[in-house]
TrEMBL record:
SMART domains: PDZ
Name this protein carries in UniProt: PDZ domain-containing protein
One of the record's GO molecular function terms: serine-type endopeptidase activity
GO cellular component, one term: periplasmic space
């Protein structure tokens, strides 16, 4: 018994000694190793902040905006007479069959006396336009004017009482992420309201840098064209115009003409009968990192000036090749669509303050007086511009436009007749030409099969008459 107790005592004592040795020598080293591992951790920084969702009281409320706008958006019906398929009888009797074609879209009442804005493509070619208001009254509409470039048209109806209308908002102040409503008549479903946000600004869908749309994800479908894009206050910030889709229906992207451009177009039509465009007088390219390195500039955003038009406002203000336009007034310019969009709201003789980066030094602000368009591209001829006093005096002329760049395809033919850059076109189809706008109208209004007749003073001062078919 004593022997057994001695064994138990010795075993317990051995366990205590072993445990003490482990705690003293081994566990201490292990603790040190763990500490070092924590110091060399490769975890990425992570935010554990909880994002609070909107509660019901904070959610955007579109009820008031919808109520303010839905009665001012109308259904537009376009009736056109078009050529039908040619039949055997048509060929035998030398006739062409006609048929009636009906198109529909939307429009926005912008004044209590019945002025309505819509898209040009909604009413293009119409022989008759009818308007149905939200209270089911039907009116015949008069076409006041259109602008194909911005796809805007102005209509007028006559009602006995004042009509509900939507006030223009300031599209320049619209923010990406701001809530908007699209109001229109998709698929002939009247008074349809959808909601979304402004996804982007200054969008160009052509790749030719002459559009500057607002992009939104509010659902827009065929029939919405010409309808209203309004902000949460019910103010008009755009005219719904296009969708980007392979199916022809909404897939998440829609585009609207900004309200500042639309308002300027209709005001010009009402006052002048056509659109008055103010021209800055520069050409160039939108910057990115590649072009910034190529041109040796210190910024990858802005519009790089590669050429300045002679006698333009930019020329008079001292803007030169190599300058980078960063702002027009308070509008940031990161690409050409920004510049084009803002200038589309301006008229000749308006003054804009241009912020320039010059020689990679401090920004410089110069005032520029915009001018009327001085150049145009004429078929067969090439680029022409309004002749100044010096150009006309050289040939003792009182009118005409100057050829500044011949069409490369026909340049050899022109030069064989002594007609080069600097020659003066004085008449087209027996109509005097005073400026480029007159020349464009003469050509646009000629019959399809009518030849072109140019009267030109060549480089020797001799008059040449040239016919083209």
């Amino acid at each position: 018994m004593k022997k057994l107790a001695s064994l138990v005592l010795v075993s317990a004592l051995g366990g205590i000694i072993t445990l003490s040795a482990y705690k003293f020598f081994i566990e201490k080293e292990s603790t040190s190793a763990v500490t070092q591992t924590e110091e060399t951790s490769n975890f990425l920084p992570t935010s554990n902040t909880i994002t609070n969702a909107y509660n019901i009281a904070e959610s955007p409320d579109f009820v008031e905006a919808a109520e303010k706008t839905v009665h001012a958006v109308v259904h537009v019906k376009n009736t056109a007479t078009v050529s039908g398929p040619t039949t055997l009888q048509d060929l035998m009797f030398g006739r062409s069959s006609q048929r009636t074609q009906v198109g529909t879209g939307s429009g926005v009442i912008i004044s209590p006396d019945g002025y309505i804005i819509t898209n040009n493509h909604v009413i293009n070619g119409a022989s008759q336009i009818s308007i149905t208001t939200n209270d089911n009254n039907i009116y015949e509409a008069e076409l006041i004017g259109t602008d194909k470039k911005t796809d805007i048209a102005l209509l007028k109806i006559n009602a006995q009482d004042d009509l509900p209308f939507i006030r223009f908002g300031d599209s320049d102040q619209a923010k990406i992420g701001e809530w908007v409503l699209a109001v229109g008549n998709p698929f002939n479903l009247t008074s349809t309201v959808t909601a979304g946000i402004i996804s982007a600004k200054s969008r160009d869908l052509t790749g030719q840098n002459y559009q500057s749309f607002l992009q939104t994800d509010a659902a827009v479908n065929p029939g919405n064209s010409g309808g209203a894009l309004v902000n949460a206050n019910g103010d008009l910030v755009g005219i719904n115009t296009a969708i980007s889709s392979q199916t022809g229906s909404y897939i998440g992207y829609s585009f609207a003409v900004p309200s500042n451009i639309a308002r300027k177009v209709v005001e010009d039509i009402m006052e002048f009968g056509n659109v008055q465009n103010g021209i800055l007088g520069v050409s160039g390219i939108s910057l990115n990192s590649k072009y910034a390195e190529e041109f040796g500039v210190s910024t990858s955003e802005g519009f790089y000036v590669s050429d300045v038009e002679e006698d333009s406002g930019a020329d008079a203000a001292g803007i030169a090749k190599g300058d980078v336009i960063k702002k027009l007034d308070d509008i940031e310019i990161s690409k050409f669509a920004d510049l084009k969009g803002y200038l589309s709201t301006k008229r000749p003789n308006d003054i804009v303050h241009v912020t320039l980066l010059r020689d990679n030094e401090d920004l410089e602000i110069v005032p520029v007086t915009l001018i009327k368009n001085q150049t145009a591209v004429l078929p067969i001829v090439g680029r022409v511009k309004n002749a100044n006093e010096k150009d006309l005096k050289k040939f003792k002329l009182s009118k005409g436009i100057k050829i500044s760049e011949l069409n490369p395809r026909y340049a050899r033919n022109w030069k064989s007749n002594g007609i080069e850059e600097g020659s003066i076109i004085t008449a087209i189809n027996d109509n005097d030409v005073n400026d480029v706008d007159t020349a464009k109208k003469i050509i646009e209004n000629k019959a399809y099969n009518e030849p072109l007749k140019f009267e030109i003073i060549n480089k020797h001062g001799d008059k040449e008459t040239v016919y083209w078919r």
